[in-house]
Amino acid sequence: MSFRIDESATEFREIDRFDGGVGWIAHPDEEMQRASHALAIDGEVWVVDPVDADGLDDLLAEFGDVTGVVVLLDRHTRDAEAIADRHNVPVYLPRIFEGVTDEIEAPVARFSDELSDTGLEAHTVVDNRFWKEVALYDSENGTLVVPESVGTADFFRAGRERLGVHPMRRLTPPREELGGFAPERIRVGHGSGIETDAAGALEDALENSRRRAPQAYARMAWQLLPV
Question: What SUPFAM superfamilies does UniProt report for this protein, alphabetically (predicted)?
Fold first, then answer.
């Protein structure tokens, strides 16, 4: 299994549409299924961990005016700079991020416990020298956005899991960081989101992560075999 990542997208696949936003996968054939999201709050659109694509601005315009571009994982800068520059808005980074500003030639704004004045709660999921990750939670509509620690792409899941813990976190799943949420829906950085019984899918992923680790790693090894 190769993790080829294209540099440009001429089309995208829409995912995760609901009243409060929409998501898209810019390269539908990509194994890692990099997903991006737009969250709409009072006519303002916040673009999260975006991968750019032709026609994207038309999709965003359905939900309002772009107010900011948000990066939730320190290595998910993706096309944040290009989209922020195009809409003349800042790139919003969690305060725990270090060095990320060196990769972004656009105005940068920082946030801690709340994303600007949106009401979106920011919760640290990982904070170490190798991995810094923040989740967003909308307590009004129950939307939880987790960019990396959990996902729905094949790379993340074992067996019939609907949501899986990242392979590097299988043995130390983020139970304390994410276990307190009972979301109505989950948005992830790799794959389509969870719309039905999201709280159950999250609980299952966290509680059974270690037990299913051998199955997950065996699946990865099989996929990595040359064809």
Answer: Metallo-hydrolase/oxidoreductase (SSF56281)
Check: CB of residue 108 under 8 Å from CB of residue 91.
yes
Closest alpha carbon to 224 in 216, 29, 33 = 216
Range 65-90 burial, b when 16+ CB lie within 10 A, else e: ebbbbbbbbbebbbbbbebbeebebb
Number of Cβ within 10 Å of residue 34's Cβ equals: 22
Cα 143 to Cα 184: distance, rounded to the nearest angstrom = 6
Q: Which domains, and CATH codes, for the chain?
A: 13-224 (3.60.15.10)
Cβ atoms of 120 and 144 within 8 Å: the answer is: no
pTM over 0.90: yes
Dist CA 184 CA 53 (whole Å): 28
**Helix locations, 62-170, DSSP H:** 80-87
- 155, 153, 156, 154: which is closest to 164 by C-alpha? 156
Tens of pLDDT, residue by residue over 166-207, are 999 999 999 999 999 999 999 999 999 999 999 999 999 999
